[in-house]
């Protein structure tokens, strides 16, 4: 089935490309030549006014690209966008798990581009970068307040070239530069291992062109290793090629049954399974980051009861985009349809509700907030600030009271912490002590192996099957 889908996808792109080629003149003009002429004249008039009178002039290429992006923004659809040639290639590479760069997953936290985690065996991992590190500059260009896209443009590059990153590590309270040599990186779409009692675990992180092949190969190896039940982790899968999701979904949808309905402006298409069920009781882990093609797969499992969804409500992206090549090497990613699950459930802006709702474990929120002390604490002091001190010392493994009184065991814990961190060995908590304590707590929280409550729930469910 997947070959047919890829051919269909390619044909639709070809048809769209031919339409785009005509769009530059006759196709639009034939439908409304007066309106096209007026709009074109207005655009050029604005450009010439800016070019002649603006203090900095106007760059024609930048002006026209801005006009294109502005026009697409006016649709109010965040998934329809213009991709310049470089962005287009980066998009294709990222979907298929092919990267040239240092190998990190990024997110924006406040004004900072923050490393979620380095990719296994990547240059970033070899350089010692870790989760929570902030990339504040690349080759001397500040990235504070900038987008992830700009960060990617500066960090990515040809294999063998070097980039100097300025890293801020909050848990150590320091900044440092690190030089990393870029490399070609392929990120596998699957990660799998055996758990306990014949339960296999398979994380599917995306739907590149090789995702289905990697999925079925992993399942075969897990079965060979003795797996009789499966945890399928889609919690951080934000989508990819629809064809790959449909091919994998055939493992959970009986032959002849619909996997997905696609509603376009002109027609209603149905995609039916031509496969056979996998035959493994499956628990599918989902979260608010499970989106798009991942929701097609999760929805298929839930529709036909061939597995159970465990976790939290999914993202709710139920639209399909196609890529339309442009003559200049860029593309328009345009929303062409909305999809429904095989049981005709709407996903867009709704998401999927798990069969078993399990929230992820959160470490104590108050310990994630740095301790603030408005006074120098010492023996005999009483208060909530002393209690906060005690709780943080206890988290770090120091034996202390937890009653808000600075005495006895608390005094000994403070002295031991000061000794361990090169501070003055006096029973006093001053600014230097608080800074060291906050850095130690942040490091502990970042490195801790917190319980995975959702995976634990999936294992309990499968043991009962």
UniProtKB/TrEMBL annotation:
Keywords: Hydrolase, Protease, Serine protease, Signal. It holds the Pfam family PG_binding_1. InterPro entries: ClpP/crotonase-like_dom_sf, PDZ, PDZ_6, PDZ_sf, Peptidase_S41A, Peptidoglycan-bd-like, PGBD-like_sf, PGBDSf. Residues 97-170 form the PDZ domain. GO terms for molecular function: endopeptidase activity; serine-type peptidase activity. The keyword Signal applies. One of its GO terms (biological process) is signal transduction. Residues 1-29 form the signal peptide. GO terms for cellular component: outer membrane-bounded periplasmic space. Coiled coil: none annotated. PROSITE patterns: PDZ. Belongs to the peptidase S41A family. NCBIfam families: prc. This is Putative carboxy-terminal processing proteinase. It comes from Symbiobacterium thermophilum (strain DSM 24528 / JCM 14929 / IAM 14863 / T). The lineage of its organism: Bacteria, Bacillati, Bacillota, Clostridia, Eubacteriales.
